[in-house]
Amino acid sequence: MMSHELDSLYQDIILDHAKRRLNAGLREPFEAEVHHVNPTCGDEVTLRLHLEGDVIRDISYDNQGCSISSASASVMTELLIGKTVAEAKPIHDAFLEMMRGKGQVEPDEDVLEDAIAFAGAAKLTARIKCALLSWMAYQDALVRAQEESDV
Amino acid sequence: MMSHELDSLYQDIILDHAKRRLNAGLREPFEAEVHHVNPTCGDEVTLRLHLEGDVIRDISYDNQGCSISSASASVMTELLIGKTVAEAKPIHDAFLEMMRGKGQVEPDEDVLEDAIAFAGAAKLTARIKCALLSWMAYQDALVRAQEESDV
Amino acid sequence: MTTTQLVGLLPELEVIRADFPILERTVAGGLPLVYLDSANTSQKPQVVIDTMVDHLERHNANVARAMHALGAESTEAFEGGRDRVAAFLNAPSRDEVIFTKNASEALNLVANTLAWAQGPLRVGEGDVVVTTEMEHHSNIVPWQLLTERTGATLKWFGITDDGHLDLANIDELISERTKVVTLTWVSNMLGTINPVAEIARRAHEVGAIVVLDASQAAPQLPVDVVACGADVVVFTGHKVVGPTGIGVLWGRRELLEQLPPFLGGGEMIETVRMEGSTYAGIPHKFEAGTPPIVEAVGLGAAVDYLSHIGMDAIHRHEQAITAYALEGLQTVRGLTVLGPLDAAERGGAISFELDGVHPHDVAQVLDSRGVAVRAGHHCAKPAHARFGVQSSTRMSSYLYTTPAEIDALVDGLEYTRSYFKLG
Amino acid sequence: MTTTQLVGLLPELEVIRADFPILERTVAGGLPLVYLDSANTSQKPQVVIDTMVDHLERHNANVARAMHALGAESTEAFEGGRDRVAAFLNAPSRDEVIFTKNASEALNLVANTLAWAQGPLRVGEGDVVVTTEMEHHSNIVPWQLLTERTGATLKWFGITDDGHLDLANIDELISERTKVVTLTWVSNMLGTINPVAEIARRAHEVGAIVVLDASQAAPQLPVDVVACGADVVVFTGHKVVGPTGIGVLWGRRELLEQLPPFLGGGEMIETVRMEGSTYAGIPHKFEAGTPPIVEAVGLGAAVDYLSHIGMDAIHRHEQAITAYALEGLQTVRGLTVLGPLDAAERGGAISFELDGVHPHDVAQVLDSRGVAVRAGHHCAKPAHARFGVQSSTRMSSYLYTTPAEIDALVDGLEYTRSYFKLG
Ligand SMILES: Cc1ncc(COP(=O)(O)O)c(C=O)c1O
Ligand SMILES: Cc1ncc(COP(=O)(O)O)c(C=O)c1O
Questions:
Q1: Could you tell me which residue ranges the Aminotransferase class V domain spans (chains C, D) (predicted)?
Q2: What's the pLDDT at A105?
């Protein structure tokens, strides 16, 4: 990668989130807890989801990972906590679409807000999984929490 | 291979032995019977050895194989039957040496007699095993027959 | 014989031949190479070689694990090979495409993991595995090892006199006890094309899984893993104008996800602790260690090359050449073709006997005229035994084969007869 | 730092570098490539690439089975690769050299055949297999699978704080119940060179077999399979300037002859009947299917290339570079090297932590400056866990590495610190 790409990867928003790690730490209550690993590099996240009816009341997490994966967890929780599951879906979809678009997808800032900063990571095959790790964990947790409540 | 090499492979002695297959057929008595296969091509030989004291009284065989492997069995039995094991050894050694010499070993006609005709086969990696099949079977049979008589 | 009129030949055959550098070689002291051993291994077009060289000279790095520029390039090229193979097979998902070292490993992978599987897939005492007498050794021995080791029973379809699978006892073979039915799509010895969809349907009725050996089919026929009805389809890189060192296993996702891992090691894990490990999802679960990277890159170029020409066109070419060869061979006195005599029922490998000359000797004389064929059991001893022969001579054509090369073979066989003084 | 005086460097380093076409590449928008990821995979000299191309363009054919001119040439080239590898390892017999697809398969081959062996070799309930906490996943997971599946027990040597094997409990680990002792010669994470001959001696006292993972040793040290005392030694082609798709298993003849086959298929048989098969002698018994032909040819050229330069000279070069790197790295504030700090005790892979920056981010910044290193667990999660870290950054040198490249790394690390605004 070239050095201007480096700067577009490590935007201030990302470095800032990586440092502040909003909503980090594992909290109670929760309906689902999942543990996801990036087998390639070993990055890990344990993520808990707490729903109240349709509303995402809390997403708490404990992660070991690079600045991209830490920042991604931080941004995600900031974006999704407080929203309904239905409201979260288009944001989640847009994030996945951007990350899997190999840098070809023009992200919508109105939907993604701070998460738009990961557009630089989307261009780097090796970093896509870093950015996706907590988002995939959320999706998995959501499925489990919903299964739970169906029982 | 070039056509003059073809002729040096299929010398008249060889074609003649391949047709006449001296000493072919399985006979009694025998002290050891072995079955050898060339896994690459499937050529097979069943070989029986009959010793009387130190003397090779009979080598009988049944084989399925190409003209090189048939002729080789025929020539070998002609050379070895009637000799003592000790007399056979230098012939056997010389044959192996010639066949494994990649065409570089100058064979001794006084020792090898008709078997010298296999010098052409020794130059062809793919045919060396054909020529060696019955000779290896003899060696194996000899070991077994001697083990037998040691018991 | 007049060869100009042959219907179905690839239109730009000379252009295609020019893609294969080895075809310019001479052998036997200056004679043009007539390569009729493509069922054994195919020759490689320049684009495959160049793609591999470019990878080695400019993009070489290990995959998945590397974060740097070369690592990203190499990973993209390697995974691009998987995408290309998935497209070649019409696979529903690229993750269902697993790279092995050859077709043999792919078949062993299935046989081995069925021994260690938990639950209904596990093959054990009392279970039946069905194969056929027409298989390559690579689709017999793995199942012998599996059934010997687990106490299961191996059964097999026989072969009819005209070289087809004998399906007369299919109800007995495919029964409630049958866990696996495995067969070759196209026989490497008899050339026979088997009715795989029909057999797969029958196997699925009893809940058996169907493993298809497409090693000879993939080079010659359009392969659609869904349409063929199998659960697992394997083939090997070196027969589809790709390099050695790589094979392909396609499997239905649900099946692959249920199978335990085969080889353990780097890349196939999720997490490793000394006390125990968990495994990655497919395809990585089945790809332990550094994969065949440059080989996958080359295989990707190979299947693209074939797809660009078109598998339908290649199939028509093979059928035209095969028909022409069947006709030509039968003009040779004392020659008997093993397997179906109708080119429409078969692939491009033709095994035959020449009365009074052992196949090795046939091949040797042909070689002295620059004609390369295979002599022996072609890794199909049971099929040879079925026809009461121990070995045969086999010619096998491919997309670069010309009618003139078939003429050279037929001439060579006439010469062989005279060389060995057959009347 | 002044680099000109470095004792032990390969004398004609620029000439050697010119042998590796990829080293002329630029990355990151025009910067020279600084490739410090050779423990992951090595780069390839032109002679290896050219030898493979020549084989594909002029001699390609399947081996063993083919009687024709190309078949003979290809077989000779392939078996010539085996001869070269046997010489490289100082193996008593070429037949003891078995080609696998990589080191991982070689290790799995041993683990698998021990599960199915008859007699005293068989690993079963109550038996103990000993590995170490320092292994690559490829030398852990196969043994976990073996012991889980057979009811045997897996035990392991730990690691001391300074990165050596902890042999304190060797008597407990290597006991009468121990059937296998397996370990890495050189650690791919810590760089540690292990006392293999000593451990082999102890293992042999209790009748255990010794399996040595030489994946990181073979590129760097003169390997003598007899002197090292092991029963099995494995390594992988792509780390010794050879291609991917090939690995090597050397084993003592008596052991290999007693082990049952691993994969079943073409080439590994003596005879096949539907009712049962018998197997070929070594090495073929363990080489089912079409082997990695062009890969063996390339590997032969690779080990010849290394031998021509001399493994002793390469080892000295690695030690000089490693010493220089250890010194340079320790000038970087907040940097901690994992593993021995004395270059004489280690190989050329150096893993380290940089306080306050995750290894991925380190590697990313370095990549933007053209420096290629590896970040992650390097397939050695247990060794990382032992040091309480989840991942690390690893630089690894090879015979083409220059002191100036180490300088570029050290500069890059300083830049990384400033990029992430560490004080
Ligand atoms: C010590 C060690 N063992 C085994 C391996 C596995 O080699 P491969 O991935 O080629 O199977 C490696 C390299 O990845 C290694 O460094
Ligand atoms: C029908 C068939 N199956 C399996 C194989 C085995 O392929 P490979 O040797 O590449 O594993 C072959 C070719 O040798 C074949 O023709």
A1: 34-409
A2: 87
Index of the ligand 1 atom closest to the CA of residue D379: 14
Mean pLDDT of chain D: 96
Is the CB–ligand 1 distance for residue C281 below 6 Å? no
Inter-chain CB pairs, C–D, below 8 Å: 322
Nearest to B66 among C28, C360, C381 (CB): C360
| pLDDT classification of C2: cutoffs 50, 70, 90 | very low
Return the structure tokens found at D283.
């090495």
Q: Say how far apart CA C390 and CA B42 lie, in whole Å.
A: 7
Centre a 10 Å sphere on the Cβ of residue C329 and count the other Cβ atoms it contains.
21
Compute, in angstroms, the gap from residue C139 CA to the centroid of ligand 2. Answer: 8
Q: Is C290 in the pocket of ligand 1 (CB under 6 A)?
A: yes
pLDDT value for D4:
56
Ligand 1 atom, smallest distance to D103 CA:
11
Check: CB of residue D10 under 8 Å from CB of residue D399.
yes
Taking CB atoms and an 8 Å limit, are D270 and B39 in contact across chains? yes
- Calculate the CA dihedral of residues B119, C420, B46, B54 and round it to 10 degrees: -50
Grade residue C169 by pLDDT with cuts at 50, 70 and 90. very high
D381 to chain A: which residues are within 8 Å by CB? 42
Q: Which CATH class is domain B1-150?
A: alpha beta
Q: Residue ranges of the domains in chain D? A: 13-45+311-420, 49-308
Tell me whether 0.90 is exceeded by the ipTM.
yes
Contact A41 D364 (CB under 8 A): no
Ligand 2 pocket list (CB less than 6 A): C 102-104, 136, 138-139, 184, 188, 213, 215-216, 236, 247, 379; D 266, 289-290
Distance separating alpha carbons of residues A119 and A102, to the nearest angstrom: 9
pLDDT score, position B40:
78
Domain C13-45+311-420 in CATH 3.40.50.1000? The answer is no
CB-based contacts of C378, cutoff 8 Å, min separation 6 = C39, C40, C136, C188, C189, C351, C384, C392, C394, D65
pLDDT, position C131: 98
CATH level 2 (architecture), domain D49-308:
3-Layer(aba) Sandwich (3.40)
Question: How far is ligand 2, taken at its centre, from the CA of residue B88, in Å?
Answer: 43
Where do the structural domains in chain A lie, given as residue ranges? 1-150
| Token representation of residue D77 | 């080239």
Over residues D122-148, the mean pLDDT reads 98
Predicted confidence at residue D88, as pLDDT, reads 98
- Chain D partners of B127 at a C-beta cutoff of 8 Å? 67
* Atom of ligand 2 at shortest range from CA of C236: 10
Closest listed residue to residue C68, CA positions, set D24, D334, D41:
D41
Amino acid in position D192:
T
Cβ–Cβ of D271/B37 closer than 8 Å?
yes
The model's confidence at residue C4, banded by pLDDT at 50, 70 and 90, is: low
**Touching pair B, A by Cβ (3+ pairs < 8 Å):** no
In the predicted model, is pLDDT for residue C1 greater than 70?
no
Ligand 1 pocket residue status of C266, Cβ below 6 Å: yes
Triad B129, B130, B131: Cα angle to 5°: 90
For residue D339 the two structure tokens come to 């593993």
- The per-residue pLDDT for B105 is 87
pLDDT at D137: 98
- Would you state the pLDDT for residue D53? 98
Of B37, B40, B125, the CB nearest to D72: B125
Whole-model pTM: value is 0.96
**How does residue A151 score in pLDDT terms, banded at 50, 70 and 90?**
low
Mean pLDDT of C54-67: 91
Task: For residue D2, name the pLDDT band (cuts at 50, 70, 90).
Answer: very low
> Ligand 2 atom 14: the closest Cα is on which residue?
C40
Residue B40 neighbours by CB under 8 Å, 6+ apart: B129, C376, D64, D65
- Is C379 catalytic? The answer is yes
